[in-house]
Amino acid sequence: MSIRRRRECPSCNRRFTTYERVEDVALMIVKKDGRREPFDPVKLRQKLRVALTKRPVGEADIDALIARVEAGLLALGTAEAPSTTIGEAVLRELKDLDEVAYIRFASVYRQFTDLDDLMQAVQSMRAGGSAEPEPPLP
């Protein structure tokens, strides 16, 4: 996919051809530890399949979810995005798609440490909040 253009040099009047191509900029993901790696939809698909194991969600729904997350990242207009941005976007999408998969994904993403964190996430989801467990009281 390119555009071919015929041009003429203003100083020597010589004609030449140029080709213009769209340059895809690879979106880099900044991990929590500072490492950078290219965004990989295949890796995201694998993680989603784990969360959606034995759930009534088809491949078309997974493809659409990944496309929406990727489009949202590209819409940021930056070459880099923190991994937390991807995680939050996936959680928003999963919440509407499948609540069980949402809790599964959130339990790994949010690193629930015990059953109380999980219960708090379920209660928060039912109330319309996020799966972010509240910090323990001192």
Fold blueprint:
Blueprint lengths: L1 E7 L6 E7 L6 E3 L5 E3 L2 H11 L7 H17 L4 E3 H15 L1 H11 L5 H13 L11
Parallel strand pairs: 3-5
Antiparallel strand pairs: 1-2, 3-4
Estimate the helix proportion, in percent.
40-55%
The helix/strand order is: EEEEHHEHHH
Structural category: alpha+beta
Strand order of the largest sheet: 4-3-5
How large is the count of helical segments? 5
Keywords, please?
three-stranded mixed beta sheet; 5 helices; alpha+beta; two-stranded antiparallel sheet; about 140 residues; 5 strands; disordered C terminus
Briefly say what this structure is:
With 138 residues, the protein is of the alpha+beta class.
Overall description:
A hairpin with a 5-residue loop joins strand 3 (28-30) and strand 4. Helix 1 (41-51) packs across helix 2 (59-75) and helix 2 packs antiparallel against helix 3 (83-97). Residues 133-138 have low confidence and may be disordered. The chain has one domain (25-127). It is elongated and about 75 Å long. A three-stranded mixed β-sheet has the order 4-3-5. A two-stranded antiparallel sheet has the order 1-2. The protein has helices at residues 41-51, 59-75, 83-97, 99-109, 115-127; strands at 2-8, 15-21, 28-30, 36-38, 80-82. By secondary structure, it is of the alpha+beta class. The longest helix is centred in the middle third of the chain and has 17 residues, at 59-75.
